[in-house]
């Protein structure tokens, strides 16, 4: 994974992890069992998992995206298997950037 992608992904995971401590009533509006969420993202948007990480309180943070449609979705799944939609959008791209040389600013 490239540095910019690592930084962006890390930032996404940090934001999503922070959102996992939101009140339960706020999360229930866009939450469902993980299997149902993954199936809906695949069927409706053609999205597949692109990255995964572990957030606060053992929450699993995942980024789903479609190379064909450019849509993307970030989910957070708690230990009981309930996934909540954290963010979504368009124009997803996978980028390939080289690491900067040692001692050079990015």
Task: Using brief descriptors, characterize the structure shown.
alpha+beta; 106 residues; 3 helices
**Can you tell me the overall shape?**
flat
Cross-sheet strand order for the largest sheet:
1-5-4-3-2
Q: Give the class from helix and strand content and strand pairing.
A: alpha+beta
Q: What are the low-pLDDT stretches, counting only 5+ consecutive residues below 50? A: 16-27
Explain this structure.
With 106 residues, the protein is an alpha+beta fold. It has one domain. About 11% of the residues have low confidence. It has a five-stranded antiparallel sheet with strand order 1-5-4-3-2, with helices on both faces.
Give a quick summary of the entry:
With 106 residues, the protein is α+β, with helices and mostly antiparallel strands.
Ordered list of secondary-structure elements with their pairings:
Blueprint: H1 3-19, H2 24-27, E1 31-33, H3 34-45, E2 48-54, E3 60-65, E4 72-77, E5 82-89
Antiparallel strand pairs: 1-5, 2-3, 3-4, 4-5
